[in-house]
Amino acid sequence: INGRVHGTLIMAPKKNTKAAASSKTKPSTAKGSRKASAKTAKLSTSKQRCVVVGSSFLDYVGYCDRVPAAGETVHSSSFQKGFGGKGANQAFMVAILKGKFDVSMVTAVGADGDGEAYINNLKAVGIDTQFVQQVKGDSTGLAMISVSTLTGQNQIVICPNATHKFTPDTVDWDSVFGKKDASHSSPSNNLPSALVVQNEIPIATTLRALKEASDRNMLTVFNPAPAPDANQLKNIRPYLKYVDIFCPNESEAALIAGVETVTPKNAQETCKKLLGFGVGAVVLTMGSNGYSIMTKNSFKHYKAFPVSKVVDTTGAGDCFVGTMVSSLLTCLTSNASGEKLPLEVLEIACDAASGAASLSVQKKGTQSSFPNAEAAKKAPSALKKK
């Protein structure tokens, strides 16, 4: 991100650095193929695109009075199975907001009934699934989730399964993003496209996606969730220069910035450290403590919207990211001369995102709790009146 005006994004060409070497294999069109076929790829020439590279998991959620302590067994009052995974959740939220752009999901599921069901779930909301790999011999990833009925807080254990094999060499990057020398904005209105990634697939794939998208001058959004371990962190930091919008929560930010804890009191200091790694802007979410936005020139903290009762916080962060990206792609253009990045640009998108996330925590489930386009649009003004 090289410059912005209010409600406007100016995408100036990014300086290319030497591309990382990678092995190339011919794409396959066989059923259950590990790599999407270049022959089937139909990149939009008239619309913006939001490409999400990330996980697709089945969620198994048990609701109980409190989450169990170590060595303890507790009874669940109810159970729910649904579609989850941070990558697919964010793509799902972008899609249901019905922006005037295409949404593509790049992910891996098992060559099983759950994998087929997940692909159909994505197709049902209009997501392009041509880059979804079905890995033979592996089951679809899943998440085992315990949610407290008293606080809405959760504990999650993920089993990546097929996602373990979602490595950089299984993706035909030119098919996903288009050739590096091609235009990556709509010729009719010069609107930018975006990449969204998280930290729930092999880290090498996430980082490769960031580099590939950055080389093509796409808007890049990195939500580093779940929090990276020490080895991942070592690999992530050199790639943060390819990130336009970095969106961690407080625990992820603390780990990456090297601070003990993050609160609204030290949010500015933390964001400043994160900007020091080369990202364009930081959106730091802190749950009920609100969120902070920091650009090269400014910082501001925002309170969370009031919520009468928190039912389930699972997926709230993904709802926030998806809404933020959808809002950015809806209102941002590149038809202005370069200016410094003002704070107001992200305020619009994050206000909408905070409102949508505040609605999602008041319902059970992950994708099933996400508000539709009409509800999400009304959320900020409706919640502010409470």
Explained architecture:
This protein has 386 residues and is α/β, with parallel strands linked by helices. It has helices at residues 86-96, 113-124, 173-177, 203-215, 230-236, 250-257, 267-275, 316-331, 344-360, 373-384; strands at residues 3-5, 8-10, 48-53, 57-64, 78-84, 101-110, 132-135, 141-148, 154-159, 194-197, 219-222, 245-246, 281-285, 291-294, 299-302. Strands 7-6-3-10-11-12-13-14-15 form a nine-stranded mixed sheet, with helices on both faces. Strands 5-4-8-9 form a four-stranded mixed sheet. A two-stranded antiparallel ribbon has the order 1-2. Helix 1 (86-96) packs across helix 8 (316-331) and helix 6 (250-257) packs across helix 7. The longest helix is centred in the last third of the chain and has 17 residues, at 344-360. The model is unreliable at 1-33, 36-45 and 334-341 (pLDDT under 50).
Describe the structure concisely:
It is built from ten helices and 15 strands. With 386 residues, it is α/β, with parallel strands linked by helices.
